[in-house]
């Protein structure tokens, strides 16, 4: 049985924790009346997230192709990459659905 490489998962976890800490600091600064440090806007954050998901999907595709062509025999790594890609796509789809629902709710509000 091969050992599963969790360095990528740990790096993603650390990124999430860092983003959470930055959001908490920004929230505390806004609550105390101080101007927050320059933070990227919503659009920039979404673009960065979509680019990261796109990179994960390309990596999964490349690993799948390498496995299919016999360049690697690490099926666990291929399946892990495909699962990350699947979760990223599902996350993107759910975010899109929530944003679309919020837009529809706002547009249906009486003026």
UniProtKB/TrEMBL annotation:
InterPro entries: FliE. Keywords: Bacterial flagellum, Cell projection, Cilium, Flagellum. It is found in: Bacterial flagellum basal body. Signal peptide: none annotated. It holds the Pfam family FliE. Belongs to the FliE family. PANTHER family: FLAGELLAR HOOK-BASAL BODY COMPLEX PROTEIN FLIE, PTHR34653. This is Flagellar hook-basal body complex protein FliE.
């Amino acid at each position: 049985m091969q050992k599963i490489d969790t360095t990528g998962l740990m790096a993603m976890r650390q990124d999430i924790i860092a983003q959470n800490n930055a959001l908490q600091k920004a929230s505390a600064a806004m609550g105390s009346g101080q101007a927050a440090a320059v933070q990227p806007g919503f659009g920039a954050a979404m673009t960065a997230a979509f680019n990261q998901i796109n990179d994960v999907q390309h990596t999964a595709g490349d690993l799948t192709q390498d496995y299919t062509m016999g360049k690697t025999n690490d099926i666990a790594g291929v399946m892990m990459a495909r699962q990350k890609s699947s979760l990223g796509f599902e996350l993107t789809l759910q975010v899109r659905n929530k944003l679309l629902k919020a837009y529809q709710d706002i547009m249906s509000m009486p003026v």
